[in-house]
Design a protein that fits this description.
Keywords: Signal. The protein is α+β, with helices and mostly antiparallel strands. It contains one helix and eight strands. Strand 7 and strand 8 form a beta hairpin.
Length: 130
């Protein structure tokens, strides 16, 4: 009887652990979370007139900061970060940079990150997915 209870206990522990891991997902939505952090991978680039840095195998680590509407973008490959960029919700699951234009925008959802950001003669681009 003790052996059966022990086996049942181990089974329950494994079952609960499996459910816990299954509920954690990379598909977290940056729009609906109070705290968001996610890595997007793909092509990224940076150009400031004297430096041109680009790769097809880069990454951008995105975090939502305490304000609730501002995000930070930490680029790989020595590309300078973008910090404190303000966003507004567009549709159910998409965030768009406040002040977006056809030539300067950042768009993020739970699957994609698109950046064409121009400021002070510097240009950041990203075409990434999670």
């Amino acid at each position: 009887m003790k052996k059966a209870i022990r086996i049942l206990g181990i089974f329950m522990l494994v079952f609960v652990a499996t459910l816990s891991f299954a509920s954690c997902s990379d598909d977290d939505d940056p729009v609906n979370n109070d705290f968001f952090a996610g890595t997007y991978k793909g092509s990224i680039s940076y150009n400031d007139g004297s430096t041109n840095n680009s790769t097809d195998n880069g990454s951008v680590f995105v975090t939502k900061i305490a304000s609730g509407t501002k995000y930070n973008f930490a680029f790989s490959n020595g590309i300078p970060d973008l910090n404190g960029v303000e966003f507004q919700q567009q549709g159910d699951h998409t965030l768009v940079m406040v002040g977006s234009t056809a030539t300067s925008y950042i768009r993020i959802d739970n699957n994609e990150l698109k950046i064409l950001y121009i400021k002070d003669g510097k240009t950041w681009t990203a075409n990434c997915t999670r």
